[in-house]
Model the fold of this input.
Amino acid sequence: MDMKVNIAGVEWKNPVTVASGTFGSGEEFSDFVDLNRLGAVTTKGVANVPWSGNPTPRVAEVYGGMMNAIGLQNPGIELFCQRDIPYLKQFDTKIIVNVCGHAPEEYLAVVERLADEPIDMMEINISCPNVNAGFLAFGQDAGHVEELTAQIKKIAKQPVIMKLTPNVTDITEIAKAAEAGGADAISLINTLTGMKIDINRRTFALANKTGGVSGPAVHPIAVRMVYQAAQAVNIPIIGMGGIATAEDAIEMILAGASAVSVGTANFHDPAVTLKVIDGIEKYMEKQGFETVKDMVGAVR
Done:
C-alpha cells in the first residue's frame, strides 16, 4: 500500500499537510508532532515586508469552529528566509511557503526572493485585499486571478499552488482562471467571511468587525467546492476546510482532492495530523486501495 502522492511533480510521502497560519512555520508544534511524518509543512503567509496585522481582539470562538482576523501578521521575507527555511530543512518533509501581498508587485517580490531558496512549492494566498481594486480580494475576480497567476508563473522557480477563497458566486470560474493562468495546483477553501457580536458588551467580538470562519462548521461547504473544482480543472487540488478527523480528510480525497490540509483542528489537538495520516492508511487497507491516487475523485 502506497501513501505517496505527486503534486505538480513534487512527491510527498503522504497526502497530509497543515493549513497556512495554523502551524506557524513548524517550530511551535515540533514538541507535539514529528514533522518528518508530515507530507508537507505549509508555512504561515509571508509578505515582502513585515506586516503588523490587525488590532486585537482578533480571534473569537464560534459554534463549530473559530473566527480570526489576524491580518496576516508576519515578519517579512528576509527574516523568514534566514530563520524559518533553515529550521524546516532539518526535517524530511516538503516545504510549501504561503505568499501574501496587497498588490501584484508585492507577491512578485516574494516569489522572486524565494526563487533560489531550498523550498519545494509556493502557495499563493489570493484572499488578500487588493489595494488597486478597492480592497476586493484578488481571488474574487476571475480576470485578476488569471492575470496574477500568469505573472507569478513567469518568474517562479517552484511549482505554484493558488489558494482560492470561497467568498465567490462560482468557485469553478475561479478554479478555471487559476488553471488558465498556468497554476500547477490549487488549494481550497480559505476561510468564509463571518461576524460575531458580543451581546453583553454590544460590540463586535473582533476589532476588525468581520473575520474568517474556519473549523468543522465549514467542512460540508469545503467538500462541495472541492468536488466542483475537481470537475472543472485538470490540475491537482489540495482540499482543506474543517478537517478534524481522518474521515473528513478521506471525504475530501473521494471528492477529488489529491492531498489535504489540516488547519483549525491543530489548535485543540496538536497531534491531529498524525491521527489523520494513520486513519487514511487504515481506511486504504480496509477498503483495498493500493494508492492514494486510486481514491482521488472516486465519488462522482
